[in-house]
Structures are given as structure tokens and as C-alpha cells.
What we know:
Low-confidence stretches: none
Number of strands: 2
Structural class: mainly alpha
Number of domains: 2
Helix content: over 70%
Mean pLDDT: 88
Largest sheet: 2 strands, antiparallel
Amino acid sequence: xxxxxxxxxxxxxxxxxxxxxxxxxxxxxxxxxxxxxxxxxxxxxxxxxxxxxxxxxxxxxxxxxxxxxxxxxxxxxxxxxxxxxxxxxxxxxxxxxxxxxxxxxxxxxxxxxxxxxxxxxxxxxxxxxxxxxxxxxxxxxxxxxxxxxxxxxxxxxxxxxxxxxxxxxxxxxxxxxxxxxxxxxxxxxxxxxxxxxxxxxxxxxxxxxxxxxxxxxxxxxxxxxxxxxxxxxxxxxxxxxxxxxxxxxxxxxxxxxxxxxxxxxxxxxxxxxxxxxxxxx
Length: 281
């Protein structure tokens, strides 16, 4: 038992995370996603909205540490509008709601005067696009009748990328992937992500979406790049703001944004890929 404890502590130290709580949180999130989709897909859209609102609270606090004002209340209202518009109107609803929300948010900032306006307007625009807009593609994935299969395929792909990249990186990682942005990430972990996400894509596309396995393998390769890019972008944001984690709500993961980073960049890519496949294949 002492040996197992020592191994676990060594893995936690190398990864910079607590392994067992991290796995427990991941499994719990997957269960919640599946349950909401299986019961009623609209509940999943609500769940996406809740996650985005929690993410907004984290990023608003992070910007506050950098003395940049971002209106939490205004962005929460914009998030609710985007989620409802996307669920009811599809991609057109998402586009129109985003286009309407941005100028309204900027006009709202005028109430504070001109001091720091450019900084606040830039940060507000970033948050609007980074969180509710990109998360809107999760709602789009869930919206069709096969939304359960689409979203669970998405979950499998992102989980394969994150989990096996993490495990392979912890066990075998020696060569940093982006040392100035995310020192814990390694080329070995990236290779692990690639192998297992391609395999996960082939299996999930064949059995869940009933498409050719080789299409899933190609999509899996795409997800490795989108998910890794999303992770690195969020890491760059944290380093620029001098933060280790965006929050602490999820044991073993940090904040909601630390869990959403790869999700936000992968959702629009997978949605577009599935739309192209549906149209041309």
C-alpha cells in the first residue's frame, strides 16, 4: 500500500495534478453529459449554459487581477441569449445572437467612460467569442435527432486526447512540447494523444455514427490538433495573467476553463466536419 501511495504521489508531482480526483471528475462529467442527452437534449443545452457562466465568472476574476474590467452580468445575459438562440435557431441563431450581443456589450461599457475602454472592450469581445460563441457549437452538436451519438463521439475524442496525452506524458514524457507556455506537456504525450484519439475516432464513428472507420481516424487526427491548441491557448492566457489555474471548482482539474480549454476549440471543428460529411458523403 505504501508503494502504491508513493507511486501515486510521484505521478501527481510530475503531472502537477492529483491523478485519482482528476479521473473521478472526468468520469462524473461524462456520466452527467450522457444522462442529460439520454433524458432530454434541451437539458444538455442548459448544462452547457451553466458551464459557460461558471467559466465567465472565472475569467472575469482573472481579468480583474490584471486590472481589466469585464462585465460579468452582461456576459451572463449574452450567454443565455446565445444558448437559447442556438437551440431554437441553429447556426443562424448562434451567428445572429453573437452579432447582436457584441455591440450591445460595447455600448454597455460606455457607461464607465473612456478610461480603459479599449482594454475592457477587447477583453469583453474575447470572452464573448471564446466562451459562449464557441460553446454554442456544443449545442449545435446536440440539436439534431442523433445528438446523443454526436456529443458522445465528441466526448470520446476529447477524452482520448486529454486522458491518454496526460497518462503517456506523465509516464514517458521527456521532451517539452511548448516549454515556455505549458512545461508539463511533452511530445511523448502528444504522440499518445494522437495514437489513442485516432483509434477512438475510428471506433466511435463506426459504432456510434455508423460511418466509415477511416473517416473517424481522420477526424481523430484533427481533434488532436484542435484540442491541443485549445489547451495551449488557455495555458498562454494563464501565464500572461500569472495564474496556475483559472479556478478550483473541479478537483484535479482546477477551474471550469481548465476543463473546457480543449472542448471549446474542438466543438466547432467537429460540427463543421460532420456537416461536410453529411452533405458530401
